[in-house]
Amino acid sequence: MEACQKGDAEAVSHLLRTGRGCSASQQDPHYRNGSSPLIEAARTGSLETCRILLEHGAPWNAIDKDGKCAGNYASDLGHQSLVNYLVDVAVTAELLLGASIRTEMSTTYTSKEATKPIVDIGTGSRCGGPVEHEPCTKSDFLSRDVCYVDGDKLLDGDGDAVMMEWERPLMRAHASVIMGGSGTSATGKVSVMNVGFGMGIIDSILQEEQFSPALHVIVEAHPGVYAQMIKDGWDKKPNVRIVYGKWQDEVPKLIEEGIKFDGVFFDTYGEHFTDLEDFQNLLVDLLKKPAGVYSFFNGLAPDNIFFHGVACQCVKLQLSGIGFNVEFATCDIDVSDEAWKGVRRKYWHNCTYYLPIITWANENS
């Protein structure tokens, strides 16, 4: 640790080559708030020391008890070249991990429900920490009850929030993005699909007069949420088509029908990062050309801004690989502590929201 604190790449390399009880992945919960060799090296800004540690197995996403990783400290201390390097390493690691997860799923299990995901971005190596740092994936969500509370939140069986009213300004921004991009909203000829109803915030906005799509498809899989939709009369709204079931089963059926959409929004709960990727692979058959617009609720790795950035970059690489442009518009969002009362853990921690805007790439570019 002392060599890492000094950014002494030569000493770190020597210690790791000769053994002497040293490990690049060691993490002592009693040392400097549960620090790691990579975190200590990142504090110094020594890219070479970090490179050596990573080559010897140091986890890029190891965090201390404050929930901060090497990338956080490098960013906080202004070591931008090191930040860029760590982002590249992290994105490569996550893409390889995703491929590994997919291989395990395809060779060992018949469905994703048969296994719990191996890891989420930012949860690979941690040294204690609060409940907010737990993985958000919940493979049993659809089989458990949900509860609508006080008209401003939807909670799952653990008391975690599925959706909350504070999201409304963000949902309005998302609605404007996916509807405005088609250029036909004023004529009422737009077709739009939302996957994940929750509290119905974005769907209610989409039903407002300035949008009023000609076809509004809502895909919802949770039986409790679906029952609430029927109770609230969503099945009787003009131009609304409710598709009850898992999107993994139902969206391919919509594709078989030949339905394409001007706007698509994705906001499911408790799923793994690979589920988002799977849905996005369907966009080539879902989104109208050339002006269709897709967006999703960007709650990726919300408890750590560095992990969040890595996740956004992974999404960007995946979508660019199948023919899309990806931009992130910044939105200021301030969620008061009062809003979280009655919720087991926060699912948003930042003051800036990066709203994804995904459009077809120029075929000539």
UniProtKB/TrEMBL annotation:
ANK repeats: 33-65
Positions of the RMT2 domain: 134-365
Alphabetical list of InterPro entries matching this protein: Ankyrin_rpt, Ankyrin_rpt-contain_sf, RMT2/GAMT_Mtase, RMT2_dom, SAM-dependent_MTases_sf
Example GO molecular function: S-adenosylmethionine-dependent methyltransferase activity
Keyword Magnesium annotated: no
UniProt-listed GO biological process terms: methylation
PROSITE patterns for the chain: ANK_REP_REGION (PS50297), ANK_REPEAT (PS50088), SAM_RMT2 (PS51559)
Keyword annotations from UniProtKB, A to Z: ANK repeat, Methyltransferase, S-adenosyl-L-methionine, Transferase
CC terms in the record's Gene Ontology section: cytoplasm; nucleus
Domain of life according to the entry: Eukaryota
Listed transmembrane segments: none
PANTHER family xref list: GUANIDINOACETATE N-METHYLTRANSFERASE
Protein name as annotated: RMT2 domain-containing protein
Organism per entry: Corethron hystrix
